[in-house]
Design goal:
The chain has 304 residues and is α/β, with parallel strands linked by helices. The protein has eleven helices and 14 strands.
Length: 304
Amino acid sequence: MIRLREVSRRFGSLKAVQRLTLEVAQGEIFGLVGPDGAGKTTALRLMAGLLIPNSGSIHVGGLDVRLEPDRVKDMAGYMAQRFGLYGDLTVEENLAFYGDLFGVPRNVRQALAGELLDMMRLTPFRRRAAAQLSGGMKQKLALACTLLHKPRVLLLDEPTNGVDPLSRRDFWQILMRLAGEGMTVFMTTAYLDEAERCGRVALMSAGRILRCDTPQSLKAELAPRAFLSADSSRRAGARLNSTPGVLAAEPAGAALHVYLSPGASREEVERASGVRLDPLAPSLEDVFIAEMRASRAREARHGQ
């Protein structure tokens, strides 16, 4: 449903997206993960046809985004970080307004709006002004407005940013239901624990994709090189970070999470650093940090 080939986008001298290549299947929930400034929003806006790439090709549902942007916008629903809800309009009035924007016939819109309000658990609040909704309820209303024209692809830019844990859970239940019905969901997120729920994730930094796979595969690949040090002192961290074969030793609560380079030996690192290492079951956050450190090490070696 989504295919990007060697997509790049610059803003002056800033390389926001660099040679981005991805494929996302129908019914998949795909997560693009990275820190602020990584290029996630730019990538999403390129897929939505709101920006034109400087090079490369983008297809959504078989349509070339560059050549048929209007047809792509009919097929895809795009929910920006700050969706344009109108605070002085009620929940129902916001849905009616967006129904008019999408050109949805009134009889179809009324039936679908009722279904969406039920799905979002917003039916009891249908006559409440949007400005009086909680953050999580606003996000669910924004999603309902995005779904009014029955898109086949859903593009979400950090949809749960600043939303409370209960609302995040509700939001994810809705996304799982939509994907189960065949909708393709592509979302950006800065929450690595949330990205664990995606079928696949791409780790992005400085406009580039570092890795792309299922969360389980990414964690399993790092597991033989991820260790825990109970000694979290600054001295232990400094010794580990100066030891050959150590990508990084990062504070994590009362311990250090230690990531080794491929081929490095735990025993040799322990002897060289004088610090004991225990096996660690890595999280997706560990994977991302290890990949970031490896990427920076490669750039330093190549003088980039």
